[in-house]
Amino acid sequence: MSSGIDVSVIVPTYNERENVTRLIKFLHEIMVKEKISYEIVVVDDNSPDGTAEAVKSLSHMYNVKLIVRPGKLGLASAVLEGLKVAKGSIIAVMDADLQHPPEALPEMLKKVSSGCDVVIGSRYVKGGSIAEWSLFRRVVSRGADLIAKILLPKTRGIKDTMSGYFVLKREVIDGVSLNPRGFKILLEVITKGRFKKVCEYPIEFRARTWGESKLGVGEVFNYILHVLDLAHEAVRFVIVGTMGTLVNLATLFFLGYLLSLEHWITVLVAFETSTLFNFTLHELWTFKTGFSKGVGNRLAEFHGAVALHFISQVVISNLLFYGYGVERVLSQLSGILVGFSLNYILSKHVVWRRRR
Ligand code: GDD
Ligand code: MN
């Protein structure tokens, strides 16, 4: 490989003293041998095991920058923190725990030179493997991959969407705002980055010798929220709508059975409760920010969209059933789908229209 290639290797650490000191030495040897100019950016979250001190003591011998954050703030946000100080025109991201083989890095960098914008260290291409993972961990990983492939079309051609080992040209993410949520920063890169070609390079995902994994059960929930955040607005719209229906039924149940109110009153209150529930979640989650109108207008217009949803649903259902002799359930289902679609279109393009 030609010299002068400027690569920043970002390494997030939490309690990785034994591992990261070895990794730094390995990386240095490899980079010197391959004549690649490098820097290592370690982002530590104030690990109680003294990771930061150990890294610091190496920084006079190796080209290591150390960032210490006040507490454990998560893997993806650590990587983003490292990106802020990284100087390289090529960025590599890898775990500190030696599960990602450092020897693969020169080959991954070569693939960047030969036209790949992103190169993923991949366990699932020919030659790749996992050394030691429980059946549970494999199932979770495959499940997470499946969810990504269903909801995020850009991940579909990629074998190892869950990898935390990758190399990319800086331009891919320059000026792109990446969300620091959770573990899977590669998903952010694939869904938001600007690239033409993603390549995968086979790696062996090795066993951990020191320390332990930081991936807990809470990460599974966090992951699902992360993917939904990256998914199309319509996906969140449907999820909120479904939850809103449950809120509607629960309100009706509560008012009808526990407070014994008149049915028509419970219907109206349940309608308004679920409308406000949906509105709040669409504001905070489905659409989020950048709207062209004030919140009062959005609230009023959303009531209009919901009213239209309701009217069109009733009209279509009756029209199909009485006018065209369509089967009942099918008529009703068609009404629901049309009503829901109208609600979505109005919400997206009128109520929560974005500023230009
Ligand atoms: N700074 C910081 N803050 N670093 C963290 C944090 C954190 O909150 N949580 C984890 N890390 C660091 C670890 O110290 C390690 O270097 C790296 O992030 C990966 O964490 P592990 O706990 O070893 O993750 P894993 O082995 O379960 O998962 C890995 O394998 C996945 C493959 O499915 C990660 O690399 C994933 O990114 C990878 O996708
Ligand atoms: Mn690990």
Kindly describe this structure.
The protein has helices at 17-33, 51-58, 75-85, 105-113, 135-151, 185-192, 218-230, 233-258, 263-286, 295-324, 328-351; strands at residues 6-13, 37-44, 64-68, 90-93, 118-122, 129-130, 166-169, 198-202, 204-205. The protein has 356 residues and is of the alpha/beta class. It folds into two domains: 7-230, Alpha-Beta Complex (Spore Coat Polysaccharide Biosynthesis Protein SpsA, Chain A); 233-351, no CATH class. The protein has a seven-stranded mixed β-sheet, sandwiched between helices. The chain has a two-stranded parallel ribbon with strand order 6-9. The chain is elongated, with a radius of gyration of 26 Å.
* Assigned CATH architecture of the largest domain: Alpha-Beta Complex
Q: Tell how many strands the DSSP assignment holds.
A: 9
Instruction: Provide the CATH superfamily of the largest domain.
Output: Spore Coat Polysaccharide Biosynthesis Protein SpsA, Chain A
Supply the CATH class of the largest domain.
Alpha Beta
Structural class: alpha/beta
Report the sheet-strand fraction: 5-15%
Q: What is the CATH T-level topology of the largest domain? A: Spore Coat Polysaccharide Biosynthesis Protein SpsA, Chain A
Count of DSSP H/I helices: 11
Strand order of the largest sheet: 3-2-1-4-7-5-8
Mean of pLDDT? 94
Order of helices and strands: EHEHEHEHEEHEHEEHHHHH
Termini separation: 45 Å
Q: Give the bound compounds.
A: guanosine-5'-diphosphate-alpha-D-mannose, manganese (II) ion
The major β-sheet equals:
7 strands, mixed
Low-confidence stretches: 1-5
Name the shape in a single word.
Answer: elongated
Task: Give the C-alpha Rg.
Answer: 26 Å
Helix content: 40-55%
Number of domains: 2
